[in-house]
Amino acid sequence: MKNYIRTLLPTGKKLLTDGTICLSLFSSVAVAQKAKTVDKRPNIVIILADDIGFGDFGCYGATKVKTPNVDNLARKGVQFSGACAPASTCTPSRYSLLTGEYAWRKNVGILQGDAPITIKPGSLTMPSMLQKQGYVTGCIGKWHLGLGNGNVDFNKEVRPSPNDVGFNYSFILPATGDRVPCVYLENSRVVGLDPNDPIKVSYTQKVGNDPTGKEHPELLKMKYSKGHDQTIVNGISRIGYMTGGNSARWKDEDLAEVITGKAVDFIKEHADKPFFLYFATHDIHVPRVPSARFRGSSQCGVRGDVIQQFDWSVGEVLNTLKALHLDENTIVIVTSDNGPIIDDGYADGAVENLNGHRAAGMFRGFKYSLYEGGTRVPFIISWPKVIKPGTSDVPFPFIDLFASFAELSQYKLKSHEAIDSHDALSILLGKDHKPYRDYVLIQNNNGELAVKKGDWKLIPVESKTSKMDQLYNLKKDIGETTNLADQEKEEVEALRKIITDIKSTVKN
Length: 508
Ligand code: NG6
Ligand code: CA
Hints:
Largest sheet: 10 strands, mixed
Strand content: 15-25%
Strand order of the largest sheet: 7-6-5-4-12-1-13-14-2-15
CATH class of the largest domain: Alpha Beta
Shape: globular
Number of strands: 20
Distance between the termini: 40 Å
Bound molecules: 2-acetamido-2-deoxy-6-O-sulfo-beta-D-galactopyranose, calcium ion
Radius of gyration: 22 Å
CATH architecture of the largest domain: 3-Layer(aba) Sandwich
């Protein structure tokens, strides 16, 4: 892997070996603050893509799509080859990122657009911790962690919302682009709602008279391939039924521009304070509907076009930081919530136009899978003032960002807070290159687990997606082609015990 990544990087990029100054710099900043001097805490921006795979950026080997902004960030920061999402679908992955807790502990899986909130208001989250440490926090883009307490009424203030779990500001898509309601919420209220045209949402039965994709396929500008045959919004049929809220409905073509604009505004408005921005793009989730500017822009169809649109969003954020002279002291992370998928329910030509593009790189499997392709994601971190350019092949599950930011901002986590997150700050800063975890756990949407330890990975038979134990030596066989479970029985049992032990810690 290391060699693979190295050969992809521009020559001259060196591994960072000593980041000692970075940590002491932060401590001296804290002292300086007490002396009421200028606040030098770094801003933190996480740009979380949706469904972008390990092989989807130029700096990770893609040639059919151009991602100059992401590639440039990688040149200036640390590019990881061993990073993974905690889960191979969105909701559990994001739940783990923001809470520092494995989502399978709470049976958190993909949610519908009217599902209640999964994060308990009042519990410590990454943003609420950073708030305590003096950060202004913003959540922009895809939420998909539930809203309200059940029977949510989108015509009223929708609480609890991101604003109740640590964010000072939020501008969100409630769930996914392919789920109703297709409206934005800003600080817990639907944007542009006409009270005379109230919104109604259901995932069980049709509401109102809006046509569905199933009944009226002739009205569709994009056909569905699986599911996605319910209410038609903007010529695209979705998961779930909605009626009303016509003035508030988004246009898929404008989505990237709208939310990127909000991210830029948030940075501008808070330029004088330390801020934390969680910018969760809709790109490149389905439905993939790029703006006119990006339609047809890549060499691998619409999926490539929206990757290039994502890259533009990254560029807008970076340009804004630069224009405000915030670029040196802002940590920017670019990563993805889970692995890639080519056909995710719409017949958008992504499969036909792939043109040899390998979305999951050399990994086996895709989104939803416990194979590496399901969770192995690109991960780039930059902080020009402190981090020297480099690469890292340390296994790094991004559930560990929580404890790492706690360390960075000098918040002492209590034993019940962010219980599954480990401090990896020195890895993130490129200071250390030794594995810091005993093992790494990943899950699929059903809460089934696989475990990686040293060179080995076990997908146990207990996970229903596997009919047998599957043991791979990731060092020798990164593509998970040769199952060694029969030859290495002791290894299998040792890894199985890790899963059994951690599962036994679940409190009901
Ligand atoms: C699935 C949807 C898929 C996508 C996914 C959530 C069907 C057939 N598939 O149920 O299109 O919306 O949920 O994706 O409906 S995620 O990235 O948010 O986890
Ligand atoms: Ca996703």
